[in-house]
Amino acid sequence: MSAEARINERIRVPEVRLIGPSGEQVGVVRTDDARKVAYEANLDLVEVAPNAKPPVAKIMDYGKYKYEQAQKARE
């Protein structure tokens, strides 16, 4: 995932292939619906494969993900 990953409202495509918070494939859904599911779970919608057709987005805690990546980089 790039450092410039688009999250939440920055994802402007009409639909995404959604991966749920526990890694399960949800399928192709409208971006607004995916964002709503993420907000209800108090998580973020993060675009993980922007060049795919349709783009792949995952529901995750983006702050936690960034923190874990920073920890790995320090090791």
What does this structure look like?
The structure is a single chain. With 75 residues, this protein is α+β, with helices and mostly antiparallel strands. The protein is built from two helices and four strands; from the N terminus they run ββαββα. A hairpin with a 5-residue loop joins β1 and β2. The two termini are 19 Å apart.
Mean pLDDT score: 92
Biggest sheet architecture? 4 strands, mixed
Strand order of the largest sheet: 2-1-4-3
Tally of DSSP helical segments:
2
Low-confidence segments, ≥5 residues, pLDDT <50? none
Strand portion = 25-35%
Strand and helix order: EEHEEH
Characteristics:
four-stranded mixed beta sheet; 29% strand; globular
State the gist of this model.
By secondary structure, this protein is α+β, with helices and mostly antiparallel strands. It has two helices and four strands; from the N terminus they run ββαββα.
Topology:
Layout (H helix, E strand, L loop, with lengths): L14 E5 L5 E6 H10 L3 E6 L6 E5 L1 H13 L1
Parallel strand pairs: 1-4
Antiparallel strand pairs: 1-2, 3-4
